[in-house]
């Protein structure tokens, strides 16, 4: 391996706190599925494995980047999620990566921006994110009720008061 070798993939800047965790990495795509009956968001990738790049500059904090193949900020949104569990007969069972991704896609579907699935090649990177979070949405205080696998409706959300936070 050479020191001049080029990395494959796109460098996506991430916060330093997410660089060394074993949280699930969930990559969501918006505005890529066309047709009548479609979801606004699609889970493109869920994994716990990641390639990190650490860039250092003189007299500055190091910057961390995630190497992702095919990442496009016009259609992708990147989220980190801890391991989630479901209650089955009184015991906690860990959810798999695709299940976690589907729950996140259902929870964020209301904030996805409706736009055409095509764009001009000369378009620059958008200033607004693909998914806009509403001001009242805090993921540490939401409980997601998993929908029945037969029903195609999104999962209902209900707010739960976080410990130490006043309820609105």
What attributes characterize this protein structure?
single chain, mainly beta, 168 residues, three-stranded antiparallel sheet, 10 strands
Q: What is the percentage of strand-forming residues? A: 25-35%
Structural class: mainly beta
**For this entry, what is the oligomeric state of its chains?**
single chain
The overall strand count is 10
Largest sheet: 3 strands, antiparallel
Note the run of SSEs as H and E: EEEEEEEEHEE
Mean pLDDT: 76
Poorly predicted runs: none
Count up the helices: 1
Give the overall silhouette. globular
Radius of gyration of CA atoms, rounded to a whole number: 18 Å
Helix content: under 10%
Question: Strands of the largest sheet, in order across it?
Answer: 1-5-4
Quote the distance from N terminus to C terminus: 56 Å
Characterize this entry briefly:
The chain has one helix spanning 97-108, and strands at residues 10-14, 24-30, 41-47, 52-55, 63-68, 76-81, 85-88, 91-94, 142-144, 157-159. The chain is mainly β and 168 residues long.
Report on this structure.
The chain is mainly beta and 168 residues long. Helix content is 7%, strand content 29%. It has one helix spanning 97-108; strands spanning 10-14, 24-30, 41-47, 52-55, 63-68, 76-81, 85-88, 91-94, 142-144, 157-159. The protein has a 3-stranded antiparallel β-sheet with strand order 1-5-4, with no helix packed on it. It has a 3-stranded antiparallel β-sheet with strand order 3-2-6, covered by helices on one side. The chain has a two-stranded antiparallel ribbon with strand order 7-8. A hairpin with a 2-residue loop joins β7 and β8. The termini are far apart. The model has no long low-confidence stretch (mean pLDDT 76).
């Amino acid at each position: 391996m050479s020191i001049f070798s080029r990395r494959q993939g796109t460098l996506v800047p991430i916060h330093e706190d997410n660089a060394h965790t074993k949280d699930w990495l969930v990559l969501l795509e918006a505005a890529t599925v066309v047709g009548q009956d479609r979801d606004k968001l699609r889970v493109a990738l869920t994994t716990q494995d990641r390639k990190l790049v650490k860039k250092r500059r003189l007299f500055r904090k190091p910057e961390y980047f995630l190497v992702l193949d095919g990442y496009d900020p016009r259609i992708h949104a990147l989220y980190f999620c801890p391991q989630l569990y479901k209650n089955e007969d009184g015991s906690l069972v860990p959810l798999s990566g695709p299940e976690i991704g589907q729950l996140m896609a259902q929870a964020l579907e209301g904030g996805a921006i409706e736009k055409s699935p095509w764009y001009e090649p000369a378009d620059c990177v958008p200033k607004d994110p693909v998914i806009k979070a509403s001001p009242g949405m805090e993921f540490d205080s939401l409980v997601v009720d998993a929908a029945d696998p037969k029903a195609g409706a999104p999962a209902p959300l209900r707010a739960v008061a976080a410990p130490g936070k006043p309820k609105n």
